[in-house]
């Protein structure tokens, strides 16, 4: 039986992963669950799956979790130290780690899993954006297995030749096409985008996701981060990655080959599909998702992204061209900007302004260690907060 650690079990990816695992309890055993502060849901997950270990990173939530499990006579051990994430991700008794923590917080435990040679089901795209070269080196050195859960990268994996590694050069690929829904503001004008609210931005037309990734989808930064992620996952240059707006979110991505063939992975927009494929790769298992009804779907639309309205996408390409620590700066500035937008300290359009400012103000440098990655991340956040304080709408 395959023992699994889920980093970020109360988020969208974690909950969907548990739904798939529930169908296949004879194959998979939840070894550990981690979350931030959703103590009620985390308690219920412990009741349902009886993991050996659990931790809520928020101290108050963790204390309440202990009380809850004691009252319910659940034998799961509640850990206290934040370093427990790294310990769980590298634990000798587990084979698979689902990295579903949102943002830079997922970097260190995911690196720990890579250094320990685990099978890593990666939803935390920030690990590759912040420290792609270091992470890929760690995966190769330890013979870890890296399988993307993002629907787009998982789709690419599904249409690559299964007899070969995830490698652009050896698979006869001409280019990769990443599809994007366009988010809730696809048809908005630049003028209309000046006035959108967090509440409007959190209404994604196709997917139910956490706040951060939903805002990233609205700005199209999510697709920018996925471009950077794809470069590292598939060893492909940015110039051979094309973004295509596909409002229905039925085609999850495509691969164009040198013989003129273009292969696409299609399905209903449901994260249980890529999670099930990642868990069982290269085999397939039941996910609980219904098949695609082509008659009901009726049509598939495509259009080019508007980089003028959604400059975050262009900033991601720019960060790739700049190289070194530029993607790390991009990611840190974006995380700070999204948090500020959600509390209405800055406007929707100022998200891109802030990111561009940080990328211009900070000179890219080589990322020779995780310590340098974390230092760049910290300095960028400080710079971004300073910019926000000088532009704060509520001040």
Automatic annotation (TrEMBL):
EC number annotated for this UniProt entry: 1.1.1.267
GO biological process: isopentenyl diphosphate biosynthetic process, methylerythritol 4-phosphate pathway involved in terpenoid biosynthetic process
Residue ranges of domain DXP reductoisomerase C-terminal in the record: 266-382
Keyword Lipoprotein annotated: no
Domain 1-deoxy-D-xylulose 5-phosphate reductoisomerase C-terminal: 146-234
Molecular functions per Gene Ontology: 1-deoxy-D-xylulose-5-phosphate reductoisomerase activity; isomerase activity; manganese ion binding; NADPH binding
PROSITE patterns referenced in this protein's UniProt entry, alphabetically: PROKAR_LIPOPROTEIN
InterPro entries from the UniProt entry: DXP_reductoisomerase (IPR003821), DXP_reductoisomerase_C (IPR013644), DXP_reductoisomerase_N (IPR013512), DXPR_C (IPR026877), DXPR_C_sf (IPR036169), NAD(P)-bd_dom_sf (IPR036291)
Amino acids binding NADPH: 10-13, 37-38, 124, 126, 210
Enzyme class label: oxidoreductase
Keyword check for Manganese: yes
Positions that bind 1-deoxy-D-xylulose 5-phosphate: 125, 151-152, 181, 204, 217, 222-223, 226
Residues that, per the record, bind Mn(2+): 150, 152, 226
Pfam families found in the cross-reference section: DXP_redisom_C, DXP_reductoisom, DXPR_C
Catalyzed reactions: 2-C-methyl-D-erythritol 4-phosphate + NADP(+) = 1-deoxy-D-xylulose 5-phosphate + NADPH + H(+)
Keywords noted in UniProt: Isomerase, Isoprene biosynthesis, Magnesium, Manganese, Metal-binding, NADP, Oxidoreductase
Top-level taxon of origin: Bacteria
Cofactor(s), names only, from the UniProt record: Mg(2+); Mn(2+)
NCBIfam families in alphabetical order: Dxr, PRK05447.1-1, PRK12464.1
Family as reported in the entry's similarity comment: Belongs to the DXR family.
Role, per record: Catalyzes the NADPH-dependent rearrangement and reduction of 1-deoxy-D-xylulose-5-phosphate (DXP) to 2-C-methyl-D-erythritol 4-phosphate (MEP).
HAMAP family: DXP_reductoisom
Protein name: 1-deoxy-D-xylulose 5-phosphate reductoisomerase
Gene: dxr
């Amino acid at each position: 039986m395959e023992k699994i650690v889920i980093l970020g079990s109360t988020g969208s990816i974690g909950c969907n992963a548990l739904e798939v695992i529930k169908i296949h309890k004879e194959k998979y055993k939840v070894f550990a669950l981690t979350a931030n502060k959703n103590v009620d849901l985390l308690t219920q997950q412990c009741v349902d799956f009886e993991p050996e270990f659990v931790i809520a990173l928020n101290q108050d939530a963790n204390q309440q979790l202990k009380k809850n499990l004691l009252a319910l006579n659940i034998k799961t051990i509640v850990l206290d130290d934040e370093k427990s994430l790294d310990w769980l991700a590298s634990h000798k008794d587990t084979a698979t780690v689902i990295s579903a923590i949102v943002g830079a917080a997922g970097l260190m435990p995911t690196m720990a899993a890579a250094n320990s040679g685990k099978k890593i089901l990666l939803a935390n795209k920030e690990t590759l954006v912040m420290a792609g070269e270091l992470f890929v080196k760690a995966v190769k050195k330890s013979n870890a297995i890296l399988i993307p859960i993002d629907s787009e990268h998982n789709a690419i994996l599904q249409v690559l030749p299964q007899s070969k590694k995830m490698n652009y050069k050896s698979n006869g690929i001409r280019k990769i096409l990443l599809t994007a829904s366009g988010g809730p503001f696809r048809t908005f004008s630049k003028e209309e985008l000046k006035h959108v609210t967090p509440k409007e931005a959190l209404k994604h037309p196709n997917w139910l996701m956490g706040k951060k990734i939903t805002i990233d989808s609205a700005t199209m930064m999510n697709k920018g981060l996925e471009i950077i992620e794809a470069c590292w996952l598939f060893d492909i240059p940015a110039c051979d990655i094309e973004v295509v707006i596909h409002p229905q979110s039925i085609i999850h991505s495509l691969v164009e080959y040198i013989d003129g063939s273009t292969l696409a992975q299609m399905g209903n927009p449901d994260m249980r599909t890529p999670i099930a494929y990642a868990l069982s790769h290269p085999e397939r298992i039941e996910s609980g998702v219904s098949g695609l009804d082509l008659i009901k779907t009726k049509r598939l639309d495509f259009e080019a992204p508007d980089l003028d309205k959604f400059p975050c996408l262009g900033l991601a390409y720019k960060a790739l061209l700049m190289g070194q620590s530029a993607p790390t700066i991009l990611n840190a500035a974006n995380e700070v900007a999204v948090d500020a937008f959600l509390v209405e300290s800055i406007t929707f359009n100022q998200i891109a302004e802030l990111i561009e400012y940080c990328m211009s103000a900070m000179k890219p440098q080589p990322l020779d260690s995780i310590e340098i990655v974390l230092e760049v991340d910290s300095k960028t956040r400080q710079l971004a907060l300073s910019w926000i304080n000088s532009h704060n709408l509520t001040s």
